[in-house]
Automatic annotation (TrEMBL):
Membrane topology value: Multi-pass membrane protein
Protein's name according to its UniProt entry: Cell division protein FtsX
Domain FtsX extracellular as annotated: residue spans: 56-160
Family note: Belongs to the ABC-4 integral membrane protein family. FtsX subfamily.
Taxonomic source organism: Streptomyces rubrogriseus
Compartmental location: Cell membrane
Keywords: Cell cycle, Cell division, Cell membrane, Membrane, Transmembrane, Transmembrane helix
GO biological processes: cell division
Subunit structure and binding partners: Forms a membrane-associated complex with FtsE.
Signal peptide as annotated in the record: none
Name of the coding gene: ftsX
TM spans (from-to): 21-41, 179-200, 221-254, 280-299
Any single Gene Ontology cellular-component annotation: plasma membrane
ABC3 transporter permease C-terminal domain location: 183-301
InterPro entries, per the entry: ABC3_permease_C, FtsX, FtsX_actino, FtsX_ECD
Length: 305
């Protein structure tokens, strides 16, 4: 009988404050969708880091004849065969080096034409203007400075470049976007909590006569609070369900179908469905507990009837 009464009171409360209940559902849905999106964004960035950092190389570019005339680092002339052999020998002896690949001027020219063949500059370049280089795969991508210290400024070396620096800028941008999403999520969460508190208080005020009578006849504080807490929890849970739907639909249409980024951007290792599905229980639990706790604390003074 008591459970039936609590359930009936929940329905009455939701119908009485339909507009505010709808606002709670929408705000909870948006805030938790952003929350889940930020978690998935973090997973995506970490996934990309693991994928790309494993593939980054350090490049040691060697001086050519053109560099000898224009680049201060190549003032002593183009790299010689003895210098190339010495550089290769030193690389083979370094423990941080996993693999070394030599790229000749002809190979560099071929790769440039493949990547930038449509560029007006490509037609004016010749193979002898390209730079020979050593592409170095490190055991640990963080050990770039070891290579830079050993070869930067050496005779025959034009420059030492670390691809990881380019990736760091990209991931820094992605992390910045993620923190911006979290800031918006926090703002929406505050709005949702304020709406929940106001909705509960309006509901409690509209039923103050009933709660006063219940208090006078000896009803416990929890029994009086239960319908209001459950109203907030139900509204929050609906919002959480909507947020879960947003994430599933976004993953389906953005990555798998619709935009189909997984097919168009083959170089990006996108997160799978397992990452999405593991976040849904957390979102639902948050959508249930957050409104319930907010309602509990908002109602404390209404027990003093």
């Amino acid at each position: 009988m008591r459970a039936q009464f609590v359930v009936s009171e929940i329905g009455v409360g939701l119908r009485r404050n339909l507009t505010m209940t709808f606002a709670v559902i929408v705000s909870v849905a948006l805030s938790l969708a952003l929350f889940g999106g930020s978690l998935l964004m973090s997973d995506q960035v970490n996934n990309m880091k693991g994928y790309w950092y494993d593939k980054v190389n350090v490049s040691v570019f060697l001086c050519n004849k053109s560099d000898a005339e224009s680049d201060p680092n190549c003032a002593k002339g183009a790299v010689t065969e003895d210098q190339k052999k010495q550089i290769m020998s030193d690389l083979d002896e370094m423990a941080v080096v996993e693999k070394v690949t030599y790229e000749s001027q002809d190979e560099a020219y071929k790769h440039y034409k493949e990547q930038f063949g449509d560029s007006p500059l490509a037609s004016s370049l010749t193979p002898d203007q390209m730079q020979e280089s050593y592409r170095i795969k490190l055991q640990d991508p963080e050990k770039y400075q070891v290579i830079a210290t050993a070869f930067d400024g050496r005779d025959g070396v034009q420059s030492v470049q670390d691809q990881k620096g380019i990736l760091d800028n990209l991931f820094g941008l992605l992390n910045g976007m993620n923190w911006a999403a979290r800031a918006v999520m926090a703002l929406m969460l505050v709005v949702a909590l304020m709406l929940i508190v106001n909705t509960v208080r309006v509901s409690a005020f509209s039923r103050r006569r009933e709660t006063g009578i219940m208090r006078l006849v000896g009803a416990s504080g929890f029994y009086i609070q239960a319908p209001f807490i459950m109203e907030a929890a139900v509204a929050g849970l609906i919002g959480g369900g909507v947020a879960c739907g947003f994430l599933v639909i976004a993953r389906y249409f953005i990555i798998d179908h619709g935009l189909a980024l997984s097919e168009k951007l083959n170089l990006i290792n996108f997160i799978g469905w397992d990452a999405v599905l593991t976040k849904l229980p957390l979102i639902l639990a948050t959508s249930l507990l957050m409104p319930a706790l907010a309602a509990f604390f908002a109602l404390r003074k209404y027990l003093k009837v």
